Amino acid sequence: MKRGLPIALGAAVLLLMALFSAFKLELSDDITHFLAPGDDPRLARLSRRLAESELTRTMILSVEAEDLGAAIGAVDALEDELTKDPEVAWVRTGWNPEHNQAFHELYYPNRLLLTSDDPEELEHLLTDEGLRGAAKELKRQLNLPTSAMVKTIASEDPLLTYVRQLKRLEAARAGTLGLQDNHFVSEGGQAIVILATVHSPFDSQYQRPFQERLEATEQRLVEERGAGLVIEQSGVGRFALKAEETIRGDIQRISFVSTIAIILLFLGIFRSLRLVLLPLVPIAFGVTAATSVSLLLFGSIHGLTLAFGASLIGIAIDYPVHLFNHHVLEPDASGPGGTLKRIRPGLLLGALTTVVGFAGLGWTSFPGVREIAVFASVGISAALLSTMFVLPALLPSQPKPIKLQQALARAASRVLSAMKRRRQLLVVGPALAVVLIVGGLVQVEFEDDVSALTRLDEELMTEDERVRGRVSRMDAGRLVVAVADDEETALQRNDEVYSRLRDAKESGYVEDFRSLHVFLWSAELQAKNRQALQGEGVVDRLASVYQAEGFSARGFNDFKDFRAAVETIPAEPMTYAQLRESPLRELVISFRTQLEGDVGILTFLRGVKDPGALAASVAGVEGVYFFDQKKMMSEIYSRHRVQTLQLVSVGLLGVLLMLFARYRKIKVALAAFLPALLAGGAALGFIAWTGTSLNLLHVVSLLLVLSMGVDYGVFLAESHGQQKEEAATLLSLLIACLSTVCAFGLLAMSDNPALDAIGYTTGLGVCFSLLLAPTTLVLLGTPTEEA
Amino acid sequence: VLSLGLAAVVAGAVLCAPQSASAAPPASKASVTVEGLLDAFAKMPGLYVKFREEKQMALLAAPLVNEGTIHFHKGTLARHTTAPMKSSLVIFEDRLEFGDESGREKLDLAGNPVVRLFVDSFTKVLAGDRAAIERIYNVEFTTTDAATRSWKLVLRPKLDPMNKVIARLELVGEDLVMRQMIVLEVGGDQTVTTFSDVDVNRSYSAAEAKRIFRVPGK
Predict the structure, then answer these.
(1) Contact: B60, A550; criterion CB under 8 Å
(2) By the CB < 8 Å criterion, does B62 face chain A?
(3) pLDDT digits (tens, 9 = 90+) for A536-552
């Protein structure tokens, strides 16, 4: 009954927390969570929107055959299949002739509202001099190949506003692609298909079956139409799938190996299935408690918090290992509770220092990191409590002695004795660590590019670049965005963006850009055009100037048509809603995005030659940003890295103070503290020294190393002076170190740079900690104490 | 509409070519026939001709007058206007390019089936392909003066949308030499082009072709 109560209570608490977590769990993936308050959250939201946007969901298929006709035939067949696919939002294979009619119906009645987007040019146009220029231009147009069209509209549109709009559309309709039989064709003779998926390319649940269907269709077409048919693809989806496949494969493979290794390790040392499974109890308590408290405090948990936080709580496995080892080697006569009592100060101090270290992160300005700090602190505390109050009840009262464990303990004891006899030689260890730290500091380079955390498939990359080159796609992740509370203000800002980007293009800062301005101007700008044209005497002066320039009044119906057109300029401006509801919808829909309460108008860029100059060219326009997604994410990660390092340093200072408060002797406090610091520094120093750039994941892994390193130091310091306890503790550290190498260190086997970073830092760090903890203790310990 | 407008000029430019064949020596003194004309067109090796074009439009108080030269070589046609303003129109197999002092424009014929129809239809005239011509036009051929062997070939487009723009083309010549072409538009405007200095045996060296069959400034 005495043992049953804590088990029952523990099980009840665990069950309640698990149920609460399961029912209340709400995962968040809002990137703004990991932004400091100083960052513009609208840009972060935009970044998230872009990840889900049509730009990311768009795919390009390039179809090449023995001749263009065959390629176009294959494209038609492909289009038939794709339009039936539930995952395909839309497919474009060419210019839809119906758009010509839709364009005319929408723009011809509104043509005078779109006379000029430059107020100065508009003012000049309506002067006598400007009208003379317009008359000359009309005469020139009548001599051009397009004269038949010009003749039909000249009477109603002598300023040729509609022709100008047509030219703007002509430039925007297909970018650099040509047309053959109304199909998009590249300069290299490939027929092109552009399509968008319904779901994000990062959503493998939809993307994988879609890619499989697409591949099957492609294979069938090749079989039907001959081997000369080559279909290539450009799009994010395949990269996302490949990356996920690689990471999942690595994790499964490594997890399998590490699980087997840990089981064998624990079975080998403890010879008990119960002791193999029991370390999971504190981890389960830690994760469920952390999840429950986080949900209570924050309402939801970010996905990154759950991933990083759970990893941090993983270090709590050292507590049961420490307990089991002491209990099996030196069982207390009163049972597991007595054994626990002996090591309790070390466990408490180890956990407390870890919590202090994590809590230091709570001072960060990043809400997401604060959440991780709370999650990990609560988790470690819960894991400790369950180790102290639940585990003893689950352990055997009088465990059987295990020969291997006893032999290892004796060996540990001999090692410690040898180390104490040759204290001078031990200086080599910390000295080498210092050399690695200094060497690493000299060499260190930081990589904050998020994309560097994923290794892209070379073959896919080459194909993607080849296809992108054929269609000159706008650059992904680089754009100018005009943000405002309402659509009209956003459009006004977009008008200004267009004007400035036009200048930037002329200056060579950017190769090209695509703007909503080609299709729509702000109501304010349209109203200016209407007011100017309806100004007093404009039609009469135009009539007079045009006749003087050789035009026949009779041919212009005595300018009555133009007068009527001016008098009936629509009072209401053209709106985005009109475009969205017209057949031209697909041409404009990707330019506008809703950013919660704000409206964002996007301008897509291609070939940004000088990002600084481009940013400067739109700077100063309120609510307008040059958005470089890659740069922004790099800056965010860089700030995370720097601030995390700073807070870890502050946390470490707090840990040192705690240790000093506990031991009241600086030497002992340092003996507990320095191994972690030297081991973490040496691990990163070694990695930097080998030429690897450090990233945020190295820093996060450093946290793990420091936490475990301090635990190692504390456990040893607590047992200092008691030979058998020291030997048992050293063996605990060996088992903990090996289990950590199995759990985290094996990740270094991965090809994925992110997993590799975690694996190397953690694996090296805990090994260095294991070596340096006894070394430092012996070096700093007093001869009296050793005796 | 844009395409149709372009087509009208293409008509003017391309149809100049047949008069070149007119300089080929008549096979006999027998009366001129449409077969004889088309056969001569088909055998033309290259062409150089001066033109004077008068565009009469309702919009203008006075006609627009253009003068310049036309060149034809290996299926490519260039029309360089020298007065009153310089401009050039070059029709290649797959595209059409136009340029003047205000800028240059290019039209992909593959992407403009309407213009392609116009260009192709006139190519058939150049090729002397009577069957193709009769598929596109209603053909009327009359000899106006037996003594001077004068003739008039009237082509009335019957395919949509050509027939929406051009009412008829009138080619007037003597013997196998074409002297004038009139393009009458549906709206009443008309373009009268008079030809002179015809050289149907004009050959172009590679360097000449490179210089002539392009829009200047490129």
Answers:
(1) yes
(2) yes
(3) 889 999 999 999 999 99
What is the distance of C-alpha A605 from the center of its chain?
A: 21
Contacts of B199 (CB under 8 A, 6+ apart): B20, B23, B47, B48, B49
pLDDT value of position A478: 81
Answer whether A149 sits within 8 Å of B2, measured CB to CB.
Answer: yes
Q: How far apart are CA B114 and CA B137, in angstroms?
A: 15
User: Residue A135: phi, psi to the nearest 5?
Assistant: -65, -40
Q: Collapse the DSSP code of A99 into the 3-class scheme (helix H, G, I; strand E, B; otherwise coil) and give the result.
A: helix
The verdict on A544 touching B (C-beta cutoff 8 Å) is no
Is A462's Cβ below 8 Å from some Cβ in B? no
- Does any CB of chain B come closer than 8 Å to the CB of residue A552? yes
In the numeric block, which tokens belong to residue A496? Answer: 């200004």
Q: How far apart are CA B154 and CA B141, in angstroms?
A: 6
Q: Is A146 on the interface with B (CB under 8 A)?
A: yes
- CA A282: distance to chain centroid? 32
More confident residue, A316 or A159: A159
Q: What is the pTM of this model?
A: 0.68
Question: For chain B, what is the total number of helices (H) and then of strands (E)?
Answer: 7, 11
Cβ atoms of A542 and A562 closer than 8 Å? yes
- Computed over every residue of chain A, the mean pLDDT equals 85
Q: Which residues have a Cβ under 8 Å from the Cβ of A233 and sit 6 or more positions away?
A: A59, A60, A61, A62, A214, A463, A464, A467
Lowest mean pLDDT among A26-30, A98-102, A602-606: A26-30
CB of B206 within 8 Å of a chain A CB? The answer is no
Structure confidence by residue, pLDDT tens digits, A321-348: 889 888 888 888 888 889 899 889 889 9
Residues of chain B in contact with residue A182, where contact means CB-CB under 8 angstroms, are 111, 113
Cross-chain CB nearest to B64 (options A142, A148, A554): A142
A-chain residues near B97 (CB < 8 A): none
CA distance B146 to B174: 10
For residue A398, give Cα distances in angstroms to A1, A324, A328: 18, 12, 8
| ω into A675 cis (within 30 of 0) | no
Q: What is the DSSP string of B19-73?
A: HHHTTSPPS-SSPP-HHHHHHHHHH--EEEEEEEEEEE-TTBSS-EEEEEEEEEE
Cβ of B57 within 8 Å of Cβ of A151? The answer is yes
pLDDT greater than 70 at residue B27: no
Cα–Cα distance, A473 to A56 (Å, whole number): 12
Pull the structure tokens for residue B11: 């008509």
pLDDT band at B25 (very low <50, low <70, confident <90, very high): very low
Contact A733, A639 (CB under 8 A): no
Q: How confident is the model at residue A600 (pLDDT cuts 50, 70, 90)?
A: confident
Kind of pairing, strands A478-484 and A624-628?
A: antiparallel
Interchain proximity B89–A145, CB inside 8 Å: yes
What residues of B are in contact with residue A146 (Cβ under 8 Å)?
2, 5-6
Cα dist from A544 to A131, A274, A558, A656, whole Å: 10, 103, 11, 91
Contacting residues of B for A544, CB less than 8 Å apart = none
ipTM of the complex: 0.78
Dist. CA A739–CA A318, nearest whole Å: 9
Phi, psi dihedral angles at A568 (to 5 degrees): -105, 20
Output the pLDDT for position B111: 60
